[in-house]
Amino acid sequence: MRLIFVLLIALTVSGYFIGNSKPDTVKNIQYRRIVALAPSYCETMVALKESPRLVGVTTHCDLDEVKHLKRVGSFADSNLEIILSLKPDLVLAVPHPLALNNLRILRENGIEIFAHQPDSLRDIRDINEKLAEKLGIKERGLLLNRRLDQALEKAKAQVLSHRTTQPSALIAIAHSPLVVAGAHTFMAEIVEMMGFSNMATNPQTAWPIWPLENLISNPPDYFILMEGIDSVYSYQRLLRSLQLDLYNFGPALIVPKRPLFFSPSPVIIEDIEYFSNLLSRSA
Description:
Rossmann fold, alpha/beta, five-stranded parallel β-sheet, 283 residues, five-stranded mixed β-sheet, 39% helix
């Protein structure tokens, strides 16, 4: 889980360097040897049903569809020798500051780069559509985006169906210390689009450490443990330090079976649908 959190922070930072990437153009090319340098791109290719075009993927991509493929390092520290040996005609990358030099070298070797930073739902929609168009399957990208919108609408209807006011939520992503999703983060945007009001509104900090005393003085309507059920014991221990019981200290508790909304890719569609079902059971 700490690895996921580190990747999330790194991807947030990389958004400041998006201006270093060149705009993409749609070319009449049949891309057949694609390398994905971020887990979100692996997931997007799988969602578009185009994983057979992949010849190499990042170390952090563990989907069954790509387990047999060559590993090319991380999005910020890719192995140029391995990538070049794969003779890709397209590399899917995140314009992280630590990756820019390697991306420059790949371009100098005649390799086309598709580089976009997935910081928001709008970014995810844009990547779905632009990558699908580049691969000659634009309708599949549009279909993914329609599924995303439908999932959000269903979840919002579920959130608001049993309440007369907009419920507040605290979105916990780490427990030692208690770190929450703050304003302008991808994760908070999803939760807000589903009809919640995020309690962590300080625009200066994307992932603030939440004071434990706030859980007593200003508890949320919903306490969401995005780390999933494996983290419950740690949160129980955290709450006991305040002489509180995790399941009975006030807020409605939402605990998914697995981590949710950590990857800015089409996998969030299934996450949203699953989250909506959790809401229906907790209502």
